[in-house]
């Protein structure tokens, strides 16, 4: 590397020597070489000049009055601090202990009397070049520190924003235990809990792909949709569809949100889950020691623009706990680089102490000595819904007391409109407008969705639900559904609603009729008792929610009765 | 961690082999790959036979490729994935977007 000439001419050198002759000689050498030079007669003066002029390099005679060269050098190095200022000692004595003093005083080089001009210039040149490198590195380091400081500040702001948005509607209850590490935000984990007007508990655990701030930009909108729609009584599939739509619009192609929504229904001791790309969940009954693995059934959110979520509905026991976590838990490494895998989680859950404590302490033990591995979100949901604290506290009524009205209406959807849109949400909104059954929105939505799906898929499109039992068949089912729906040229679905007040509240009779060939409904109830699987979760859900479900005609007409109490 | 890319000129298929960990460190390789894919490639086969691990940013890179080549499920084939890697793809339900063989 060639020393920048400009720097050479600008470089300032401080020379201190008590011999006048020596001073004249050094001044001549450095001036001719183009340096700016300052001259001192002793160590004390050298120190004062150093403070005033801040030279780039210092040449000190060792033996001087008032303050010797060694002492002056020590003080100069102290003043310079992190900045590198090279010091060359001039000595007439080449004994080793003398040289040791120079090294102890952090001297950078020596030159012996009588001074050889060429050697001196070479040493000065090389030390100044080194100083130049050090300064460059020093300023880069300062710059990096500044960036880091700025980033820390931004993280802090983001963390505050995140807290405000995500936790604004957070419903805290002892039945929901969670560990969400403070840095999890920057890994894009979100955890949301809310209660619906119908006194159901809604939980969303999500994990954005990627790291850093970019990963958490979607958190705000997702939380807003979740809390907003839960408060209005929307069902989990509607919420998921909406979050998916928003994420698809918002996120770049390579980013998505893996998430699961769980809803607890205390009325029926059951739960619904929509799983979209998170690791397996575990439902563990600590009495029977039965462990049920709940797998991800849907694509993560934000990848495709619209989809029909595959929802899982299952009964829950008061002795069960549901465990959800993001992949940070099973990918947490120990000092050997081994991951805390899924079997470790299962082993901890299936132990003597409670699963939540067991998993987390096993995880802490596993990651001990690994410093901060801050990407862990672990959740335990207590399935004992009937005794849950969140159940006892009624949701604040934000609407008027219900008064059952007497009304009825019917609608008919032709194949052309069925091809384009799902009419169920619109119909539900209409019922809500008329009757204001917001606490019952989720249930009514599920009933109408199931009846409509049956009428469309099995009635008009003549799909066999047995197809859905294998993973391959499942995909085939939905692709066939899409194909046939696109080609649907005739047929209709009629729905009618009849609502009447009862002594205790109201009764909603939902009738649905399709133009399809129907099916042998006499087998429904008997088969349902023997094997729910044959008819899928849909029909068992219907029987759960409704007072009665009756098929008639050739199986293409169904009447469902839903009752509510004020 | 390396990516080997081969263009099969007879059927205009890009053959990609990922060796080692498939994660964010392959970001630049995949960026180049998706630029290439945008220029008239009909299909891509991604061989994960020697891939040890797939993380979520790798899944993101696959989505970018899908975006460039077209969203038909047949456009991108993922072959030879080990059971562990397949498990990650299955959790994300990527078999709905790609042909996983």
Give the topology, please.
The complex is a heterodimer of chains A (566) and B (101).
Chain A: H1 5-10, E1 12-16, H2 20-32, E2 36-40, H3 43-53, E3 57-61, H4 69-80, E4 87-91, H5 96-104, E5 109-112, H6 117-166, E6 176-180, E7 189-195, E8 201-208, H7 213-216, H8 219-231, H9 236-250, E9 257-265, E10 270-276, E11 281-285, E12 290-294, E13 312-315, E14 320-325, H10 327-331, H11 342-349, H12 355-366, E15 377-382, H13 389-392, E16 407-414, H14 415-420, H15 424-435, H16 441-460, H17 471-487, E17 492-501, E18 505-514, H18 522-530, H19 532-545, E19 548-552, E20 557-565
Parallel strand pairs in A: 1-2, 1-3, 3-4, 4-5
Antiparallel strand pairs in A: 6-15, 7-8, 8-9, 9-10, 10-13, 11-12, 11-14, 14-15, 16-17, 17-18, 18-20, 19-20
Helix pairs in contact in A: 3-4, 8-9, 11-12, 15-16, 16-19, 18-19
Chain B: E1 2-8, E2 13-22, H1 27-38, E3 43-47, E4 51-54, H2 56-69, E5 76-79, H3 83-91, E6 99-100
Parallel strand pairs in B: 2-3, 2-4, 3-5, 5-6
Antiparallel strand pairs in B: 1-2
Can you give me a brief rundown of this structure?
The complex is a heterodimer of chains A (566) and B (101). Chain A has helices at residues 5-10, 20-32, 43-53, 69-80, 96-104, 117-166, 213-216, 219-231, 236-250, 327-331, 342-349, 355-366, 389-392, 415-420, 424-435, 441-460, 471-487, 522-530, 532-545, and strands spanning 12-16, 36-40, 57-61, 87-91, 109-112, 176-180, 189-195, 201-208, 257-265, 270-276, 281-285, 290-294, 312-315, 320-325, 377-382, 407-414, 492-501, 505-514, 548-552, 557-565.
């Amino acid at each position: 590397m060639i020393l920048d000439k400009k720097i050479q001419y600008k470089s300032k050198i401080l020379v201190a020597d008590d011999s006048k002759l020596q001073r004249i000689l050094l001044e001549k050498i450095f001036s001719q070489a183009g340096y700016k030079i300052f001259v001192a007669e002793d160590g004390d003066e050298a120190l004062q000049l150093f403070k005033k002029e801040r030279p780039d390099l210092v040449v000190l005679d060792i033996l001087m009055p008032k303050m010797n060269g060694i002492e002056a050098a020590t003080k100069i190095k102290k003043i310079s601090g992190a900045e590198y200022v090279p010091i060359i000692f001039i000595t007439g004595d080449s004994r080793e202990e003398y040289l040791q003093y120079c090294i102890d005083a952090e001297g950078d080089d020596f030159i012996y009397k009588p001074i050889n001009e060429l050697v001196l210039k070479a040493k000065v040149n090389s030390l100044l070049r080194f100083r130049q490198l050090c300064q460059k590195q020093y300023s880069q380091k300062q710059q990096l520190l500044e960036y880091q400081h700025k980033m820390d500040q931004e993280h802090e702001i983001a963390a505050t924003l995140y807290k405000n948005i995500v936790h604004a509607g957070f419903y805290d209850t002892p039945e929901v235990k969670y560990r969400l590490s403070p840095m999890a935000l920057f890994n894009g984990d979100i955890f949301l809990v809310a209660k619906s007007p119908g006194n159901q508990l809604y939980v969303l655990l999500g994990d954005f792909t990627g790291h850093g701030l970019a990963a958490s930009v979607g958190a705000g909108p997702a939380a807003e949709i979740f809390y907003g729609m839960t408060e209005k009584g929307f069902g989990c599939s509607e919420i998921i569809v909406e979050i998916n739509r928003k994420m698809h619009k918002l996120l770049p192609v390579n980013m998505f949100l893996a998430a699961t929504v769980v809803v607890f229904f205390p009325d029926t001791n059951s739960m619904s889950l929509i799983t979209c790309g998170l690791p397996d969940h575990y439902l563990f009954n600590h009495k029977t020691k039965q462990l049920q693995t709940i797998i991800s059934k849907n694509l993560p959110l934000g990848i495709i623009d619209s989809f029909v979520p595959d929802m899982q509905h299952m009964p829950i026991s008061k002795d069960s706990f549901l465990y959800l976590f993001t992949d940070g838990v099973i990918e947490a490494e120990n000092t050997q680089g081994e991951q805390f895998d899924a079997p470790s989680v299962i082993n901890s859950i299936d132990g003597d102490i409670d699963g939540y404590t067991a998993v987390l302490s096993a995880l802490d033990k596993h990651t001990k000595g690994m410093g901060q591995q801050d990407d862990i979100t672990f959740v335990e949901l207590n399935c004992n819904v009937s005794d849950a604290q969140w159940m006892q506290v009624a949701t604040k009524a934000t609407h008027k007391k219900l008064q059952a009205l007497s009304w009825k209406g019917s609608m008919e959807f032709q194949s052309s409109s069925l091809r384009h849109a799902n009419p169920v949400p619109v119909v539900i909104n209409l019922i809500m407008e008329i009757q204001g059954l917001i606490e019952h929105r989720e249930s009514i939505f599920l009933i109408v969705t199931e009846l409509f799906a049956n009428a469309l898929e099995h009635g008009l499109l003549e799909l066999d639900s047995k197809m859905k039992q294998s993973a391959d068949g499942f995909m085939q089912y939905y692709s066939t559904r899409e194909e046939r729906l696109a080609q649907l040229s005739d047929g209709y679905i009629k729905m009618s609603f009849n609502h009447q007040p009862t002594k205790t509240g109201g009764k909603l009779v939902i009738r649905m009729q399709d133009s399809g060939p129907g099916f042998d409904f006499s087998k429904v109830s008997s088969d349902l008792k023997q094997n729910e699987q044959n008819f899928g979760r849909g029909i068992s859900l219907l029987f759960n929610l409704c007072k009665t479900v009756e098929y008639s005609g050739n199986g293409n007409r169904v009447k469902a009765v839903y009752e509510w109490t004020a | 961690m390396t990516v080997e890319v081969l263009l099969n000129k007879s059927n205009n298929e890009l053959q990609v082999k990922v060796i080692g960990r498939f994660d964010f460190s392959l970001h630049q390789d995949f960026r180049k790959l998706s630029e290439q894919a945008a220029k008239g490639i009909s299909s891509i086969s991604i061989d994960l036979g020697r891939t040890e691990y797939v993380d979520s940013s790798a899944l993101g890179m696959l989505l970018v490729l899908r975006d460039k080549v077209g969203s038909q499920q047949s456009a991108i084939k993922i072959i030879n994935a080990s059971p562990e890697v397949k498990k990650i793809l299955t959790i994300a339900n990527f078999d709905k977007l790609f042909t996983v063989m």
